[in-house]
Specification:
alpha/beta, Rossmann fold, 2 domains, five-stranded mixed sheet, 12 helices, 12 strands, elongated
Length: 313
């Protein structure tokens, strides 16, 4: 399904199962061809995310599987109470597709930057959180997303793949894109490609790098995370999200629960929004290009190496 677009894959699933209903809050960019093909099974509620979630919950209670689309920042924040109460408490199979999350919002300002979406969605009991690296991965996992009986938040990404995906998709299963024992980079979504670029830069310095595309942040692939922490001299947690509630928080919670301690370098936006610009410029301005990530890793390895040497008297 490497060359299949999201819209085509979603249409095929809808044509094969009359339970599926596609909904949007006036966000048709990725699904603009579906209204004419789905007829009454395509519903646009307008700029009313709360109404969309309430309606989706009602449809789910009647046996439908709603696949709802909106800008990620408004979907997870404006409609959060409805997601938590109408979808989360009864555990309804509503699929939440959040457009332009994280850095993919690029030229938009803070009001449109979804940088706390993972924290909010993983805080809803029973909610799954899927963060594909590109459109190929999104399409490959889509049948499992819509077939799951659980609600699911998808951090939508329609980017071309940076590299092939060697491992078949499965809910809660990460994939290892490169092997190494010096550095491990755990990441998801858009930044998978920058992690691979960083690995190439670090290889030029003689370092072997394990790159893990986590894909799912809930359920998280605990074995993949723990294996990386155990194998590497330094594990990098890379994400376009606030520090609170994202990947660093997930790994910290896992380590606490398992009694694990390991050297870690979190790379996130901390507690700030990013400077709006074109995507390439956003990455460069915020220090998230592959070479910039590699430079931060080298500096951290050097700092840790220097700290381990006893001072001379």
């Amino acid at each position: 399904m490497m060359n299949v677009r999201y819209e085509e894959a979603l249409l095929a699933l809808c044509q094969g199962d009359p339970r599926f209903v596609v909904m949007t809050a006036e966000n048709r960019a990725a699904i603009r061809g579906l209204p004419a093909r789905l007829g009454g099974r395509f519903i646009d509620v307008g700029i009313c995310e709360q109404t969309m979630i309430g309606a989706a919950a009602g449809l789910a209670l009647r046996g439908r599987v709603p696949i709802v689309h909106a800008l990620a920042t408004f979907l997870v924040m404006r409609a959060f109470e409805f997601i938590r109460t109408d979808v989360g408490i009864p555990g309804l199979p509503v699929k939440l597709i959040g457009a332009v999350p994280g850095f993919l919002s690029e030229a938009n300002g803070p009001t449109h930057q979804a940088l706390e979406d993972v924290a909010l969605m993983r805080g809803v009991p029973g909610m799954q959180v899927f963060c594909p690296a590109d459109e190929a991965e999104l399409v490959a996992c889509l049948p499992q997303v819509v077939a799951s009986p659980a609600p699911c938040y998808v951090r939508f990404a329609a980017l071309p793949p940076r590299a092939p995906h060697p491992e078949p998709p499965a809910i809660g299963r990460a994939e290892v894109l490169s092997q190494g024992r010096d550095v491990a980079i755990l990441t998801y979504g858009l930044l998978v490609r920058e992690a691979l670029s960083a690995a190439e830069s670090l290889a030029a310095w003689g370092l072997s790098v394990r790159v893990v595309n986590l894909r799912w942040l809930k359920p998280i692939d605990e074995d993949a995370v723990l294996d990386a922490l155990a194998a590497a001299r330094l594990t990098v947690l890379l994400e376009d999200h606030f520090a609170t509630g994202g990947l660093a928080s997930i790994v910290a919670e896992l380590c606490l629960a398992r009694g694990v301690s390991a050297p870690v370098l979190p790379i996130s936006l901390g507690d700030r929004w990013f400077t709006p610009a074109l995507l390439a410029d956003v990455l460069a301005e915020e220090g998230f290009t592959g070479p910039q990530i590699a430079a931060r890793v080298l500096a951290e390895l050097d700092r840790r190496s220097s700290r381990s040497v006893p001072p001379t008297r």
